[in-house]
Design brief:
By secondary structure, the chain is mostly helical. The chain has 8 helices and 3 strands, in the order H-H-H-H-H-H-H-E-E-E-H. The protein is 54% helix and 5% strand. It starts with a helix and ends in a 6-residue tail after the last helix.
Length: 212
């Protein structure tokens, strides 16, 4: 690979880190993806002297290589997403005149339904916390909310007392941006509502950690 590729990669990661504020996880994955692409070109002895020489044929050969190596479908899709982002950046920065990824279709990932817990498994799970203690009440509250509302853990962790609407037995979640247009009402289990009330009252008395 040419020095131009190395410099473009360096600039791309600087852009991801400083402009896009990419996470460490994203930077690590993209680093692995571009390294895989570079290693493929080196191992296959594909003569590349300029970035513009990386065309759709090279990309398709890389995909064929990943399939031959029996790479997981999600890995293949991530490699493609990385290359798509990388070459889009290079085109925008005028490092290349043509984006080879514009002629590459992204394979669709087969959707599979998640395996659900049985009623007995849910009951057994919810019975684990010791509800004779404050922390047990808190944990039971958390588990019931996760089960009944479909909230993400991060969303649940950010709930506060004002998010609970007792008259309609629900908690109201505003979404990541706290915008009213993304507001949705999440029903609670009846027992979950009781536990929430007790937990909030106990928190007032004990000033312990839990719902804010």
């Amino acid at each position: 690979m040419t020095r131009a590729f190395e410099e473009a990669t360096k600039d791309f990661f600087h852009y991801l880190e400083t402009i896009k504020n990419a996470s460490v996880h994203t930077l690590r994955n993209y680093g692995n993806d571009l390294k895989s692409f570079k290693n493929f070109i080196t191992q296959e002895k594909i003569q590349i002297t300029a970035l513009d020489e990386i065309n759709k044929r090279v990309i398709r050969e890389f995909l064929a290589h990943l399939n031959f190596e029996k790479a997981a479908k999600r890995t293949l899709l991530r490699r493609l997403a990385c290359l798509r982002s990388f070459f889009k950046y290079c085109k925008r920065e005028q490092k290349i005149t043509h984006n080879p990824m514009e002629e590459i279709d992204t394979p669709k990932l087969e959707k599979t339904l998640p395996q659900s817990l049985s009623y007995e498994q849910v009951e057994r799970l919810l019975s684990q916390p010791d509800t004779n203690t404050y922390l047990g009440f808190r944990d039971r509250c958390i588990m019931e909310l996760l089960y009944s509302s479909g909230l993400r853990i991060s969303e649940l962790a950010n709930l506060s007392r004002k998010d609970f609407d007792k008259p309609i037995n629900a908690c109201v979640y505003l979404g990541k941006e706290k915008k009213s247009e993304s507001c949705r009402s999440l029903p609670q289990l009846a027992s979950g509502s009781t536990i929430i009330s007790i937990t909030l009252r106990e928190k007032q008395m004990a000033n312990s950690t839990g719902l804010k």
